[in-house]
């Protein structure tokens, strides 16, 4: 997709579709007032009659019929200025751009006027919202050529202030990189598990490493055995697909301390011997969403040339039943030397993460963040509106919380109190991998905390937010790409503050 940033007047700018963003209960600013005048008062009339109310998420399509140069015009609501956020802007663009595509526009122009906020941030939000709202996964559609030919090919940001162009361009460039990385994550998660195996993800990481300048090492089964990764290998034992332990190192931060990102990468989760019900098992291709988000965040950090040192770790395997599969009642010895009794083979994410977190500690990182589609209990607790967050460091949790508010990928902290650890005590091993229904989100995190030593650590449970069954602003039905933008914002803020 092409991106342009230009100065000019929207009423004379030729485009297939234009977007005007409006606040609720406000007079039209100068640029919009000129357009309204050219349209004979249509915009102000719609608002006055109540036919269009500029509330968040509201869009209204108009056909100017030659009175301005745009073939189509969409009014998009931002709500009250006092409640305005960059995510509101992102959402408005994410609803308006697809509505213009549906109407037949092949290029979209957004008027960037009157926000009264940081123009670079606004530009980034508009580009992210537009591109992510226009996202579609059509790879496996054989009769969708017409749809492909009807995609929007160009997004233009138009400002009436020539001096703002460079600032808008800077934000737009960041927006493109972030949107492209999020789209990559969505593509990976949406792909059939037969086409997104551990080996495919390892190959994808190597390809991105060559393209963006970070190093990639892939450990094979024999190397994992030498390291004592018994938990990861136990989960992998039932699959014909060989496991991969993918290590990505991005080092552009000089002597700065290293940040460790760990992503659960179960490319398909059948539940293993403790097999899942057949209903919705097809969705279990999304169990590698955490790993995809980490891969996307490393890609973005490298593309934006962030002056940081980051390691990304992806323990990648399937979780399948079979004659050689690990079983309830088994005891696995992890890389850290600690043992885990297996109560339920469908609680496999915490097992592969235990070895990955132990490996992360070898780097002596300044912080560790893991992200995983870990527990159904997270959806019960928080629904699909928030990612569950638990951790050991207040400053780190606050940074993640702030990044979530900025990106709209919000997190909500759950307690990690000592009493919950009682639920994962085992009679025959150091711990057990399932503590029952009570506090399932928390007991899973409690197990993970046993493997991070004294390093500041945060765990993000995206089991409920990695996939959506309904269209949302800038997030069409399907894989959401959640976590990529959250981690990227965390890294950008970390660079600024530290």
Please tell me about this protein's structure:
There is one protein chain. The chain has 498 residues and is of the alpha/beta class. It has helices spanning 30-38, 42-49, 86-103, 119-133, 145-149, 165-190, 198-212, 221-227, 230-236, 289-303, 349-361, 376-382, 394-407, 418-421, 440-449, 484-497, and strands spanning 2-7, 17-22, 59-62, 73-77, 107-111, 154-159, 215-219, 244-251, 258-263, 265-269, 309-319, 331-333, 339-341, 367-372, 387-391, 411-413, 431-432, 457-461, 467-468, 478-479. The chain has 16 helices and 20 strands. The strands form four sheets. Strands 7, 8, 9, 10, 11, 14, 15, 16 and 18 form a nine-stranded mixed beta sheet that branches. A six-stranded mixed beta sheet has the order 1-6-5-2-4-3, covered by helices on one side. It has a three-stranded mixed beta sheet with strand order 12-13-17. The radius of gyration is 24 Å and the shape is elongated. The two termini are 34 Å apart.
List the topology elements.
Elements: E1 2-7, E2 17-22, H1 30-38, H2 42-49, E3 59-62, E4 73-77, H3 86-103, E5 107-111, H4 119-133, H5 145-149, E6 154-159, H6 165-190, H7 198-212, E7 215-219, H8 221-227, H9 230-236, E8 244-251, E9 258-263, E10 265-269, H10 289-303, E11 309-319, E12 331-333, E13 339-341, H11 349-361, E14 367-372, H12 376-382, E15 387-391, H13 394-407, E16 411-413, H14 418-421, E17 431-432, H15 440-449, E18 457-461, E19 467-468, E20 478-479, H16 484-497
Parallel strand pairs: 1-6, 2-4, 2-5, 5-6, 9-11, 9-14, 10-11, 13-17, 14-18, 15-16
Antiparallel strand pairs: 3-4, 7-8, 8-11, 12-13, 15-18, 19-20
Helix pairs in contact: 3-4, 4-6, 6-10, 7-10, 9-11, 10-16, 11-15, 13-16
